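Q: Is it fine to ask for two folds in a single conversation?
A: Yes, each is treated on its own. Send the first.
Q: Here.
A: Result:
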Amino acid sequence: MKILAQVVAFALTIAAAVSASAGQGHKTQILWHQIPFFQGGDLGQYQITMQQDRDTVRKMLFSELMTEAQKLAESGASVEKMLVPMANILMEFDELHDRHKQIDSKNIGYSLEQQFKAEIGNLFIENDIRDYDRKLEIASGKNALLVEETIAQLRATGFDEAKIRSMLNELDYTAYGTFTSIGKGVFQVNVHLIGYRSGIYRSFTATGRLTEALSEVARKVFDHFQKNTYPDWENPLKTLTWMPMPVNPERAETGYSYSEAQTYCKMRGYRLPYSREILLAESGTQYKEGGIQALSLYTAVPVADQRYVAMQHWLTPGHEIYTGGAVQPQHASMRGQFWCVKGEVGTDVLYIEKVFKLIREYRSSNHDVYRALETIRYFYGDFGATETFFAGTKLLRIYENNDQALAVLKKNGIKL
């Protein structure tokens, strides 16, 4: 009877929560209200940590007792008669400490469960999220009298097991937590969610002081459900196939020269990428179709770009503030990591390359054309394009809009 009552109460709670969220533009995810927390990790290490904490306090207590004993001895009291009472005080402290530790360890799971729920609730309040906008709801129980009445009604009208099962299927997630001491008062707290119907397992973790770690992991769970869902990343370069550089631990730090990278790609039927291609690909990350591993800051990647001079160029992410642009010509004995790519070059890449070819041709001979080309770069959003730039020692400024720039190019018989 007791188990049946709990099941029916659970079903009623879930059905009520789902009904309350209907028609709000999203389905509220229901999380079962019992979220047990289990202590994990190396118990021996945990005891050592606790022992160290106790020893610290004992040393302080012992120091204070010795100070008082010295004062009493100086006033003529017998030190020998004080040794036994002092030892008893320390023993009582140890017993009291161990007793409190056992009580705290016994009740900590329940405390963490309630604190976790409170943290979730506070996040809804702090972010001014009203009930109708909640995407996560923690189910709550019903009182025993209501449950008994409901069971009586079900028995009188016929107990429909399939109906109860369908009500239970409205549950979305169950959860449990673990906490592990990693020493010096620092804990790792984990919350694990299991999809009731899908079986999907999700885990969230945070490290810090116990209450701080619990607060952080609650925020992660809250964000997972409540944050806006944005459209999936779409591969902008679907015609390209990427190939990483060879795996060679000895080259991980020294890197490869431009010629080595170019030769490696060419011999396998690939080419070096253009900067626009590789930056778009890394935005997808190595975990999404068409994406690649993120480029490391302050490294160099050989690219096929030809900019103000016709020579080998490198993409140097993170160096823009020092170099004036993300793409720089070869200097000294430059080396770095690289990617190879196979596929048709995009029209936007070819367009910018054509602009730079004209810049190399007119940069010194015709400042009006050069100014028009830099204007086109600026409004196109090319890397490193600015409103002002130098032509030799002369400072130039872009035209007011793209139409003026195109008119100058047309006047000089240039068509992009």
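Q: Second one now.
A: Result:
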Amino acid sequence: MEKLPANVGWLWLKEGFALFRKQPAEMSTLFLAYLFLMFAIGIVPLLGQVLPIILIPVFSMAFMQACVNVERGKKVYPNLLLTGFRRPAFVKLLQLGVLYLLAAVMAIAASALIDGGTFWQVMSGGQALDPDTVRDPRFSLAMLVAALAYTPAAMAFWYAAPLIMWQDMGVGKAAFYSFFAVKRNGRAFLVFGLAWILIGVLLPVIVSNLIGLLFGKATVVMLVLLPLSIVMTVVMYCSFYPTYTHIFGKPQQPAIGQQ
């Protein structure tokens, strides 16, 4: 497990964009298929609120495997969404998903100590996010507390799914290796995170202002920002793959999902 310099965080982002650029339509189609599937799962009574979270590790492997295919010159198809459903990894990925859910619940519950449960109500759909709530400093502090409480779990989950799928690790071992891999390369992850925050905030603002000046219509701005946000999200997903390969090496599994 290598310790990487801080500037590698920017390299991860560049490599993610390079992967997307090789098959932009195919990667975007995979993402849209994922969104449609999540929407369909979300309308299932009772389970619709928790299944999308529990299945995050399962579906995350679709995008990781898609990056493998792109890297090897193989086509990406929507059937890659089934990648994480392969046994024996599927059961362990589901177990990891349950841990995702528990960690999120505990982090949001911790925020209730700050704002009396307002953030919890908003996240669970029990309260609308109105302007007064957003302006409340306790609400902002509660969000920060929840984020800080979830950070150790996020570190443990970051590489857990690919380590389970590609290196046949158990859930506990994968979480352990993931946590210390992120901790060891904290500076690179800091650069990576800051780069995405800057791009995610500055780019939409610049584009929306330019479109607003040229056309002066909010509908035109939205028509431009929607596909831009999709592209940025897919590129971000693609950039997760080089964070894995730079530390754990390239997966040895054959490319799948070909037709």
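Q: Anything structural to flag on that second result?
A: Two points. The chain has twelve helices and no strands. The radius of gyration is 19 Å.
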